[in-house]
Sequence to fold (217 residues):
Amino acid sequence: MSTHNRGAQSYFDKVPAEWDALYAHENRLQYRINRLLRPGLYARHDFTFEQAGQIEGARVLDIGCGTGRFSIEFAKRGAAQVVGIDFAPHMVDFSRAIAQRMQVAERCSFICGDFMTHQFEQPFDIIIAMGLFDYIREPQPMFTKIAQLTRRVFIGSFPRFSLLWGLQRHVRYYWIRKCPIYNYTRPQLEQLYQTAPFGKLTLVQQRHGFLGAAARA
Fold:
């Protein structure tokens, strides 16, 4: 089963540098401005590393890795192996270049492909999916495969609908970029995690979405 959202693939393949600038620490002024203007993005980062548990020596999978900033941070914190997968070729190329520049390329590998059709040889201690489920029309099969591959914890982010923000996203992504966006409710997420199955769930509501972390059942 393919999870490709063609509009999302087309959009993200065009914007690796712009997207990476939201997460990059190298320009300290720009980083501080981004943290002020886009607090939700950095809340994802903080939540991920708070919930990940033991990172040193872990195997990590980053689904929808984008430009690889989360993957690279896991490697910098001592993960033994980090695999990032994304369906946008230019994002993957960008990830490899940054990993090389950050001197963690020997512990990071990046795959251009579809998570649902790619065959992984081993399970992972930590799996993350940040900013991915915004573009997934049928999330349950993905949750099920993630549960099968997770040895310890799965951490994800999920948008929720609010009138003003939801409408402007619909115009900006669907009308202009032909990129559908999918939103989630708390009961829906609880059902997705339970059915996969996962065990105890930590689900935090933010202004525009949810952050979830759950152990393998």
Q: What stands out?
A: The chain has one domain: 6-216. The domain at 6-216 is CATH 3.40.50.150 (Rossmann fold).
